[in-house]
Structures are given as structure tokens and as C-alpha cells.
Design goal:
mainly alpha; 346 residues; single chain
């Protein structure tokens, strides 16, 4: 007589990305063991070292906030069948719009002033992506190409503004004048830049998840992304769903740019985006293009990025080796083949 010991027990479901994450961590450990003369020390700084003080922890949390927002913009565009490759320029545009607003309206009081700066950043990023959306809706211009080219062009223009007319002549850096104290988001974890903006992803992610999955407009948006011909023959307004999601994606990137200005650097420094636009794409890919996966994906990305920087600072691995480890991990975690194999084994 056979006894089924599993009877009555609930089946434990392992997330499909968990084996891939473990593979990534193992790959990082192997690379460090091979190339570091002090591997245990390097491993410590690479993984738990992120939690060793408030500066490192706060920088990682701040990065999670920004990546969650740019990743959300990418996921929204993905769901509508668009590919926003211009996130980097939209983040930069959001930041410079906030800089210009602060210069034009210096008399604004603190909290309302910060709100206006964030709104100006949102408007700047949205306007840049709106152009690509209109080009796609009216003349079927490939949004992947147009967003990238617009971003590249605008980036050069903003570089010129920061190093030319808007440059702070009293600084040896390529930067605009610092923001007044009243327009700065105070740190919640001194001396890191982590601030109250952490509430935004907690608000925006559930909001967009609800919109995509529980509203008629969200359902139509996803239908447009999955099959544009089916959506067209179903009578959906294609121009709206080719323009507005891309515009909203740009708005989210612009918001991230304004947050970088008001919460991290407090001045329009040349190249302040630090790859936020590109990294948002990586986070969206790791999340499987799904909103619920964005926070864990941003946490993983931010932890690896921050851990790599700390390991370079405190151990014997070089900057190049740290970048290689990051690259290997991100290639593995974004691999669709590995994720599919992992799901099949469950």
C-alpha cells in the first residue's frame, strides 16, 4: 500500500526567474574567485557590503526608485507595441526643463516649487516622446529609430546649454548653478540621496497595473500591442494608442530626470542621467515586461550596480572587471532562453 506524503500539501511554486538569479550570483562569485587576490573580501563588498553603511544603502534605494520609474515607462510602451529607445534623452530633457523652471520662477515657495519643477520635467519628457508618437501615428515612422535619434540630438543640445549659456562660471565642473535649498528633496538617510520620492513607485506601479489590467483602455492598449492588425480591424483608434502610451512613457522618464535634479545632484550636471534611460530598458526586460516585476528587477539591478562600485572602491578588482561582472549578470538575467528553460523545469 502506497502512501502519498504530498497529499494535502500545497504545491510550492518557485518564481521562474529565481534559478536564473541564482545562476547570476554563482557566475559573479566564480569570476571574483578567479580574478581577485582577496576573493572573500571582494565577495563581501560585492554582496552584503551594500548594507554596510547608510550612504551605500541609500544610494541603492535611490537608484531603485529611479529605475522603477524609467522601467515603468518602458513597460508601458512595450504593452502598446512601441519601443522607447529615447529614454536617456527624455530623462535629460526632464532635468533641464526643471533647471530652466527653477531659473525662471525663483520666487516660488519650497514644496509648490518642487511640484512645479517635477511637472516641468514630466512635460519635457512627454513632449519629446510625443513627437515620436505623432510621427508613428501619422506617417508610420519607426518609433525605435525616431525616439533614439531625437534623444541623441536633444542630448547634444542640452550638453551645449549646460556647458554654455547655463553654465555656472564659479564651478570647475560642467554644471549649471546649484538649485536653491528650498527646491531640494531632503535626504531621509543622510548622507545618501535617498528621499521621499520613494513613495512615487509605490503609488505609480499599482496605479498603472490596475490601468493595464482592469480598465477598458488598458485592455485596448494591450490588444494594440499584441496585434495591431486585429486592433485596427476591431475599430480601435490606432493613432491614440500609438501616441499616448509613448507620450506617457516619455513623461515618466522626464519625471525621473526632474527627480535626479531635485533629489540627487541639485544642479544640471553634464551627463547626469548616468544611463538611467538604458538601464530602465534592462529593468523592464528583467521584469518580463510586467509591472509587478519592476520593483524586484530594479532591486536586483541596483544591488549589483552598487555592489560592483563598492567592490571596486574597497577591494583589488578593477573598474573594468566590475563592469564585466555587471555585463555578464545582466546578459544572463535578461536571457529569454534561460527563463523559458527555468519555467519548463518547474
Amino acid at each position: 500500500m502506497k502512501i502519498d506524503l504530498t497529499r494535502g500539501m500545497k504545491k510550492i511554486r518557485i518564481p521562474g526567474t529565481l534559478p536564473v538569479l541564482l545562476l547570476c550570483l554563482a557566475a559573479a562569485a566564480v569570476v571574483i574567485l578567479f580574478f581577485s587576490n582577496t576573493p572573500m573580501e571582494t565577495l563581501y563588498y560585492f554582496f552584503p557590503g551594500v548594507l554596510s553603511n547608510s550612504l551605500y544603502l541609500g544610494e541603492m534605494l535611490n537608484t531603485i526608485v529611479l529605475l522603477s520609474i524609467t522601467g515603468l515607462g518602458i513597460v508601458l510602451a512595450f504593452n502598446a507595441g512601441s519601443f522607447n529607445l529615447g529614454g536617456e534623452g527624455q530623462v535629460y530633457t526632464g532635468a533641464i526643463c526643471a533647471v530652466l523652471t527653477a531659473r525662471l520662477l525663483p520666487e516660488m515657495p519650497g514644496i509648490p516649487g518642487i511640484s512645479v519643477l517635477l511637472l516641468s520635467g514630466i512635460a519635457g519628457g512627454a513632449a519629446l516622446a510625443f513627437i515620436s508618437g505623432v510621427l508613428k501615428a501619422l506617417w508610420d515612422v519607426d518609433d525605435l529609430i525616431s525616439t533614439f535619434l531625437l534623444s541623441a540630438g536633444v542630448g547634444k543640445l542640452i550638453d551645449y546649454l549646460i556647458t554654455g549659456p547655463l553654465r555656472d562660471s564659479s564651478s570647475y565642473l560642467m554644471t549649471t548653478a546649484p538649485l536653491p535649498e528650498k527646491f531640494r528633496l531632503p535626504s531621509l538617510l543622510i548622507p545618501s540621496p535617498f528621499n521621499i520620492s520613494f513613495l512615487l513607485p509605490l503609488l505609480l506601479l499599482p496605479l498603472f497595473h490596475y490601468f493595464l489590467n482592469h480598465t477598458r483602455q488598458g485592455y485596448e492598449l494591450q490588444i494594440t500591442g499584441r496585434s495591431s492588425s486585429f486592433a485596427r480591424h476591431s475599430g480601435l483608434n490606432m493613432r491614440i494608442y500609438q501616441t499616448l502610451p509613448l507620450t506617457a512613457s516619455g513623461a515618466l522618464h522626464g519625471l525621473a530626470g526632474a527627480l535626479v535634479l531635485t533629489g540627487t545632484y541639485f544642479a544640471g550636471i553634464q551627463g547626469l542621467t548616468s544611463g538611467l534611460g538604458w538601464n530602465g530598458i534592462a529593468v523592464a526586460m528583467i521584469a518580463g515586461r510586467k509591472v509587478p516585476g519592476l520593483l524586484p528587477a530594479a532591486l536586483f539591478f541596483a544591488w549589483i550596480s552598487q555592489g560592483s562600485k563598492i567592490a571596486v572602491l574597497h577591494s583589488d578588482i578593477s573598474l573594468e572587471l566590475g563592469a564585466i561582472i555587471q555585463g555578464v549578470l545582466f546578459l544572463l538575467i535578461s536571457s529569454s532562453v534561460l527563463r523559458i528553460k527555468s519555467r519548463r523545469r518547474r
